[in-house]
UniProtKB/TrEMBL annotation, chain A:
Membrane topology recorded in Swiss-Prot or TrEMBL: Multi-pass membrane protein
Species of provenance: Knoellia aerolata DSM 18566
Keywords (A to Z) from UniProt: Cell membrane, Membrane, Transmembrane, Transmembrane helix, Transport
Signal sequence, start to end: none
Protein name: ABC transmembrane type-1 domain-containing protein
UniProtKB/TrEMBL annotation, chain B:
Keyword check for Cell membrane: no
Position of the signal peptide: 1-22
Species of the source: Knoellia aerolata DSM 18566
Name this protein carries in UniProt: ABC transporter substrate-binding protein
Gene3D superfamilies, sorted: Periplasmic binding protein-like II
Keywords: Signal, Transport
One GO cellular component term noted in the UniProt record for this chain: ATP-binding cassette (ABC) transporter complex, substrate-binding subunit-containing
A biological process from GO: maltose transport
């Protein structure tokens, strides 16, 4: 069905449905956007109003001019990107090997991966703190990067394993008969085919790292090394509420991720899977 | 076969790099921990974990403080500013790993003193500083005859009322008794627009604070001497009165599930007649300029003199080898009037020292709190059991609004007596 | 590239192995993954287990060995039953709703229509916005006094007085589930989109030639071929939702006790917020958590015949 419609004419009727769907997903964030454009107390007015009483654009200048916010943003981007690169580099060979070859220990390895997926860093934060202290990695980006890479690896291996498995083996067998090495086969034949899987794994890892909260909270000491998730906490506390700044900061933080996704999504459409088999 | 060997080599190399990296980090750790704390050597660097009172001021103050500290004493102060809602976790994790900071800023200290983790004032607090701290705070900072809980700042609660709503409801003066308070709440609640007469936060954030204010003003207490009196007749009467306000719908919706910040929000949006507040709330209200409010002493049940519920947070010093001198120098500097009072003023709280009280006297806005501060009543922070009882109160007190006040207080009394 | 043998990929979902390799070669390919798993996941887990066997003071100071006492205390906790029930309701409803809705939406989002790319971008937003933020945002949306949801419902006349979505016990769980589904949808939808796109074209063409209706084609061709994606989406969502912390914690923060807590927030509160305030108990609860999710996933994989999937 997908393929049939893929080759068929675009349908404008569906666009209406798509717009409604987009609206449903965006609605809360529109409220967030509007919340960033009104004063903090206006966010807690009764009865609430949908549109700001006074449009207050200065909040964005405040947030963007805030060194602390920029540092948090930098940390989140750095940690997110580095963990994603590590995860992809480590997961692809593992997923390929387990999906394509049999060897003693294959099933135990897959089980191990599945089991690690069940550990959440939140639960293990005490152990992580202790370990990173021994490694002298408390208060470093390295600790956050390693943690995010390790806890998202299982997902990446699994999803890539699923994608590798879904590709007919005949393609590779033929290539190997032609004398292509395993490494070349992975790079040239398989990777283009599993691009949607790679994209999913990339986005998932990046966003999971981007969202991680408890470990960063515990391991990071310097304010300037905190990621956004931890930094956000400073905007609304028991003692002061800066809802406008919180929402403005959130809006700014969502933008790079959506851009990243937009870039990758185009890739996904371009190199579509089975196309290369034809 | 050649190909497999090659790929094995590549992957093996990748593993080696990763492994070597981990080892490198490991050996680095050994060096670093060597100079930070071990042995009998004097510590040159100490670490402060400070609670974040406000986004703009707290960190700025401590950073500037660290600089002055370095200039004046030669010691280095590492500052970590932590949000209130996570500081419990941070401090607990550090202590589990034997990584306590040298100085920790928290709202409790007695359990830490009980565990033998803290320096007392003899070791680290200059004598002139100790004699400058208000006696009330010395008293509540003392555990088993030793002073451990050094206050960083304080706050005192008072009744905030919305003057416009009061005027609209035809209330001439703020209530002096609970009966008057109930009456005022009735009148405000009867106004059109669905206002709460009295905003009552009994949610888990800080219900012990709200309840303290009420029970002190009914002549009650948490503890009498060495014994807990949580379920005393007076306290049952107090909680029953709160239930009565709730049942009569004189409060906001669902007080048992309302946190303090939400009650403040309600007052700030002009939808509540009265609330128990403190100076940071006044600061917010002044900033918003939306609500015409007045601060008054909290009424007592029978009209006798109002009592204030006071709160201090603490800067406690952890025993770590060789850190006494640097820690003492820290307190010496922090309690300099131009340091501590600048901090307190910026954050909008109240002083903890005699010199501070004098300095703030000139501030008319603070007078209502300052007058009561030396006689403020605190929760029993000097009893380690309180650290547990407080949590039990936060989790259970609200239950009385839909249940039996006496049963709830009986339960709390049992918890308190069990946690020796 | 050779293309002679790929006319009808009959067994695409089961992924036949190309061949055998020697253990050492396989180890080399898996080594980086093993290093991360052992070094940063399992080693801290051992430390967690150690913590669960210790007796801790309220300050976090380790006072000595507790044996299995922490486990006994957790298992005898009066609220454990409530917490477990909540966890089951939370996980099952969030995952089931997420999977069903995502299947439909993914099917829609692979269709070709102008602006599709923008719709896909819109869908990523709940996922891109950090959970801490989304949870906080929904607290405000749900609010009894200032919330736009209540405001909107009142404006259109559906309700007369506000609903206390987060403070009223009969609404709290439903309100949390809604947010849980909302933030789980993007990921799941994209797993399914990727899965649908990975299905070779000719499979469908053959079905069309056979004259199958769209529903039959979906039911008999697409769905079976989506098995790997479904498996991944279900297992991961179960784990992910089970371990989800910010939503339950933030939306439930006004409610006393453990009335609406799941095992993860129960564990956190045991350590830092409750009257127990006991790291050892919390660690024991953490170990029990891990065992619990292991059990659930094992049962699930047994049901779907995991070994066959990966062979």
């Amino acid at each position: 069905m997908s393929t049939v419609t893929r080759s068929s004419r675009p349908r404008w009727g569906l666009t209406v449905g798509g717009a409604l769907l987009a609206l449903a997903f965006l609605a809360p964030y529109v409220v967030m956007l509007l919340g960033s454009l009104r004063s903090s107390s206006d966010n807690k007015a009764t009865p609430p109003s949908f549109l700001p009483k006074v449009w207050q654009w200065s909040t964005y200048a405040d947030v963007l001019g805030d060194e602390r916010f920029l540092a948090w943003l930098r940390t989140s981007l750095l940690v997110g990107l580095a963990s994603t690169v590590i995860v992809i580099l480590v997961a692809v060979p593992a997923a390929y090997m387990t999906a394509r070859y049999t060897f003693p220990g294959r099933t135990p390895f897959l089980l191990l991966v599945l089991i690690t997926q069940m550990f959440s860093p939140t639960a293990l934060v005490v152990g992580l703190y202790r370990e990173f202290f021994e490694l002298n990695l408390i208060n470093t980006y390295g600790a956050l990067i390693l943690t995010n890479a390790a806890f998202n690896l299982a997902f990446a291996v699994w999803i890539l394993h699923g994608f590798f498995s879904s590709i007919p083996t005949e393609i590779e067998e033929a290539a190997q008969l032609d004398g292509v090495t395993r490494w070349q086969s992975l790079r040239r034949i398989m990777l283009p085919l599993i691009l949607p899987g790679l994209v999913t794994a990339t986005i998932f890892t990046f966003i999971a790292a981007w969202n991680e909260y408890v470990v960063a909270l515990t391991l990071i000491i310097d304010d300037s090394k905190k990621p956004l998730t931890v930094g956000f906490r400073s905007y609304v506390t028991g003692y002061e509420q800066n809802w406008d700044q919180l929402f403005a900061a959130s809006v700014i933080a969502v933008v790079p991720v959506v851009i990243l996704f937009a870039l990758i999504e185009k890739h996904l459409v371009g190199g579509l899977t089975a196309g290369s088999v034809k | 076969m050649r190909t497999t060997r090659k790929s094995a080599l590549i992957a093996g190399a990748a593993f080696a790099v990763l492994f070597a990296g981990a080892c490198g980090g490991g050996s680095g750790a050994g060096d670093a921990s060597g100079d930070s704390a071990s042995g009998g050597e004097e510590a040159k660097t100490i670490k402060l974990v400070a609670a974040e009172y406000s986004k703009d001021n707290t960190k700025a103050f401590w950073d500037a403080f660290a600089k002055t500290y370095k200039d004046k004493t030669g010691y280095t102060l590492e500052v970590q500013v932590v949000s209130w809602d996570t500081i419990d976790q941070q401090s607990s994790t550090m202590i589990q790993n034997n990584q306590a900071p040298d100085i920790l800023n928290l709202n409790a200290y007695a359990s830490y003193a009980k565990d033998g983790l803290l320096h007392d004032s003899d070791a680290v607090l200059p004598d002139n500083v100790k004699s400058d701290i208000l006696e009330t705070f010395v008293k509540y900072g003392t555990y088993q005859d030793k002073f451990y809980g050094f206050p960083d700042l304080s706050s005192a609660r008072a009744l905030f009322y919305n003057a416009d709503l009061f005027k609209q409801a035809g209330i001439a003066a703020p209530p002096k008794t609970w009966a008057e308070l109930e009456d005022s709440a009735k009148k405000v609640a009867a106004l059109p627009g669905g206002n709460a007469g009295y905003a009552l936060p009994l949610g888990p954030e800080e219900s012990q604070g709200e309840f303290s204010m009420w029970l002190f003003n009914n002549g009650g207490a948490w503890k009498d001497g060495d014994s807990w009196v949580i379920n005393s007749a007076k306290n049952v009467e107090t909680l029953t009165f709160l239930k009565k306000l709730t049942d009569a719908k004189l409060t906001q919706n669902n007080p048992a599930r309302t946190n303090r910040a939400d009650a403040f929000d309600l007052f700030k949006s002009g939808k509540a007649g009265m609330v128990v507040g403190f100076s940071p709330l006044a600061g917010d209200l002044d900033k918003d300029k939306k609500v015409n409010y007045v601060v008054a002493p909290f009424p007592s049940n029978d009209g006798s003199e109002s009592k204030t519920f006071g709160v201090t947070d603490y800067l406690m010093a952890f025993k770590k080898p060789g850190n006494e001198k640097a820690v003492k120098a820290f307190y010496e500097l922090y309690y300099q009037p131009d340091q501590i009072n600048t901090f307190i003023e910026k954050e909008g709280f109240l002083p903890v020292t005699k010199t501070g009280v004098e300095k703030f006297q000139s501030n008319a806005k603070l007078k209502v709190y300052l007058d009561t501060l030396p006689n403020a009543q605190l929760t029993p922070t000097d009893d380690p059991a309180w650290d547990k009882v407080k949590l039990a109160v936060q989790q259970n007190l609200g239950g009385a609004m839909t249940g039996d006040p006496k049963a709830v207080l009986d339960g709390l009394q049992k918890t308190a007596e069990a946690s020796k | 590239m050779s293309r002679t043998t790929t006319r009808t990929p009959r067994h695409t979902s089961s992924g036949y192995a190309v061949g055998r390799v020697r253990p050492l070669v396989a180890l080399a390919w898996l080594a980086p993954a093993l290093a991360l798993i052992f070094g940063v996941v399992l080693f801290p887990a051992v430390m967690l287990f150690q913590a669960s066997r210790g007796e801790y003071s309220i300050t976090g100071l380790r006072k000595g060995d507790a044996g299995w006492a922490n486990y006994t205390k957790v298992l005898e906790h009066p609220d454990l039953g409530t917490v477990l029930t909540n966890t089951v309701i939370w996980v099952v409803s969030v995952v089931a709703l997420t999977i069903v809705i995502s299947l439909g939406l993914a099917q829609f989002l692979v269709k070709n229509f102008p602006g599709r790319r923008f719709v896909r971008w819109a869908i990523i937003v709940p996922w891109a916005a950090s959970l801490v933020i989304t949870a906080q945002l929904f607290v405000l949306l749900y609010d009894f006094n200032y919330g736009l949801i209540n405001h909107a419902l009142k404006s259109v006349g559906l309700i007369e007085t506000s609903i206390d979505f987060l403070g009223n016990d009969s609404w709290t769980m439903a309100s949390m589930v809604l947010v849980g589904v909302f933030v789980s949808l993007p990921f799941t939808i994209f797993v399914f989109i990727a899965g649908i796109n990975a299905i070779p074209d000719d499979v469908h063409e053959a079905a069309v030639v056979d004259g199958a209706s769209p529903w039959q084609r979906w039911r008999q061709v697409t769905l079976p071929l989506l098995r790997p994606a479904l498996l991944v989406a279900t297992v991961l969502n179960v784990i992910y939702v089970f371990n989800s912390f910010p939503i339950v914690y933030t939306l439930n923060d006004r409610n006393p006790g453990y009335l609406h807590d799941t095992t993860i927030t129960f564990m956190y509160k045991l350590a830092f917020k409750s009257q127990e305030k006991d790291v050892g108990m919390s660690a024991a609860a953490g170990v029990i958590n891990v065992l619990l999710i292991l059990l659930v996933v094992a049962v699930y994989l047994r049901i779907v015949n995991w070994r066959e999937e990966t062979r």
